[in-house]
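Before surveying the methods themselves, let us examine one representative protein, written as a sequence plus integers encoding its fold.
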Amino acid sequence: MKVISILLAGGLLVPAFGQTGVIAQGDVSGKGFTLYWQSRLEPPTPPMGNGLGYGSGTNERNGDIFRIMIDRSKRTYFGYEVHVESIAPRNTYKVAFHQLDISPEVLQRRLHMDDPSSWKKIETGTPVAKPLYPFREAQDIVHTLDVIAVELLMNPETGQKIVDYVVLQEPTRTWNFELPSKREFAYAPGTPKDFTVKDAALTLADPRLRINDRIEESTVNSRIDVSGPMIWVYLQNHGRYLLSLVPQPGFRKVGEVRGTSLSFAWGDDRFTIASAGRIAPGDAPFNLYVKEETGWKPPAPNYSGIMFGASDSGELH
């Protein structure tokens, strides 16, 4: 894997994601399958700057699926393509990862990149892909649900990597009352451990925030994904609110979590957050414990607006 440091100079908090290391995720439908991907920063600290965007789709020239990441501040992009071919027996595929072969002119209409002549593709070489469940008959043969790790870039200063986790599943179905519109995919790397009460994590996916009767418009088009034993929301002129499913010292039981909705009252204000996915594990309603930190400020200087975050350890700074 070619070592590149240009895009991994960290030091800024990423409002779009918590401290789980997840950068982005998505899916692309092919003929008879859907390719799901999740991109992670490993290890998750220090966090990355928030100038990195992402995308995925189908290369119109060759029909292959592409994954791309862009740095708008440096006007550079990189990524890879994967050729997927269905073979016998059922649920078996031949896959081949290769270099990204898409010009800035093509990406202009896909990702709204202005002035394509000023953009440059970073050559990362052929992507390094390895199975996390063993390949079967040959090195390029996978079955449905086999997870593949694709190493993209590494920062030589921190040792951090950007890694895509990829899996093939059945095609996305049309929504009805019995089946969801599409499946979600997530992969947690590392050594497994026993479950404890502290692992009862809260998760917010593309949250929408309402304060009393006012929708905060800045959250409507957000691409936010945070998860941890504690999550938090920072509001300018309010401070930070820490949220937990478990009673904690200094926390008050002032809210509840119900499916994809979370609400709590503080003073004269009522806060409601709607998530694109289930906020708490299981199907029961849960009490929500909240702590206010009026003096907390974002690490990014002069930051104004709304910020979401999370803690994996339950320790917040």
Remarks:
- Helices lie at 104-111.
- The first strand starts at residue 22 and ends at 30.
